[in-house]
């Protein structure tokens, strides 16, 4: 860079500090400014600085849905402007799919396939438009499977965990994004534990699913099958240690199918739903889990921090900062509407609709990042230049 | 330092004299260290030089004087709102002409608040710019060969050389 008397030479430190505040779209464009900028934008430390800055901003809401013409819709909403903005959905898949998880700007997407024993997974970064196909796990899973995705700052790695619908030894594999390979892991003996089909959430280096724990030992679990021979539980997977554990739900909460795991202020939380009357309105409770260290003996404790009564019947989906994302089925119109409900002001705003009954997924923790998901090709190209 | 001193005099790199109140000078670590130095006692007439040009120093002092009352005593939410609006007005300046100098000065004077504000202002101005505009304001020459440009375009369809 030339030094100019009217235009000071900005040191590297200042350039970095300015560039880390730019949206990814601008940074991708500025790769072409000069070699020095290209190399800076691609360094690990810059990617980390940019991510840290981005994580301090309000997260985006990402909403994906499949419509009846088999078209995919992928949309993103900014917390400030509240405008839904379309993303190229072909980026994730042209087939029906759902978002399994979101961490540091990376989405893990599960594509529905005819043969359910072969999971088809993608990792994508919507900001850089980068997509990578995840290789097949080592073993075939015969029957239904569950997938989780998350990041652990301890090992600085993103991992995907895949398991059969029941948590059993020899049926769980973990994929590490840094190693780019799958491995089988032991799960320990928890009795009969089954994952619910709801997508998991990730927070603090762990992935959490709701699930059921059989009270009758080896007997098969029949969730929702009349006799209550099971207890709801949270299945937690420590991404760094690659270990499962079970977490009890709040004593005062009668967990059910409509209750959702979510993340509130970086902590695991539950949005529970109580139907009032004959589906006239809802009561939504927000429970937040604290991880205790020693003292009380219990490793986890729950507190009910919000109770909201709504004017009509709505089902909570997730928390987005201080708002609850809810869905309402409109049967006469055959559509599902999505609303945001402010926890403090109780203001309610509709932001999207989709055809009723079609699969959709929402993530409320998306932040823009430069985190690479796949650039094996790019790395090779870079080493030459 | 003498507690009776309420304002100090500093010289810009162009040799002009500027007055800055003690409370405002405290926003900068290096200026604060100077304050603790003996040369601000009443019987000392040596005027320290700040390696910032006059045009920039005027703006830096204006920022310090505005932010000092809040930094020293804390402020209510309405004050914070007002200050935010003031910052936006204050930052309406030409990138090449002064913003880059403010960035350098805030970094040199260890003024975290002004540095963050200037970095964010620069980023907001840059985000919509084309590559040629960026090269122009930063005085950068395109050092990619045409093969390298082609390769970058293939890898990142979002990048552009114009």
From TrEMBL, chain A:
SUPFAM superfamilies from the UniProt entry: F-box domain (SSF81383), Galactose oxidase, central domain (SSF50965)
Coiled coil: none
One Pfam family named in its UniProt record: FBA_3
InterPro entries per the UniProt record, alphabetical: F-box-assoc_dom_typ3, F-box-assoc_interact_dom, F-box-like_dom_sf, F-box_dom, Gal_Oxase/kelch_b-propeller, SCF_F-box_component
F-box domain: residues covered: 10-51
NCBIfam families in alphabetical order: F_box_assoc_1 (TIGR01640)
Name listed for the protein in its UniProt record: F-box domain-containing protein
From TrEMBL, chain B:
Pfam families given in the database record: Skp1, Skp1_POZ
Annotated InterPro entries: SKP1 (IPR016897), SKP1-like (IPR001232), SKP1-like_dim_sf (IPR036296), SKP1/BTB/POZ_sf (IPR011333), Skp1_comp_dimer (IPR016072), Skp1_comp_POZ (IPR016073)
One Gene Ontology term from the biological process aspect of the record: ubiquitin-dependent protein catabolic process
Stretches assigned to the SKP1 component dimerisation domain: 113-157
SKP1 component POZ domain sequence ranges: 8-67
Pathway annotation: Protein modification; protein ubiquitination
Domain of life: Eukaryota
Subunit structure: Part of a SCF (SKP1-cullin-F-box) protein ligase complex.
Similarity comment: Belongs to the SKP1 family.
Protein name: SKP1-like protein
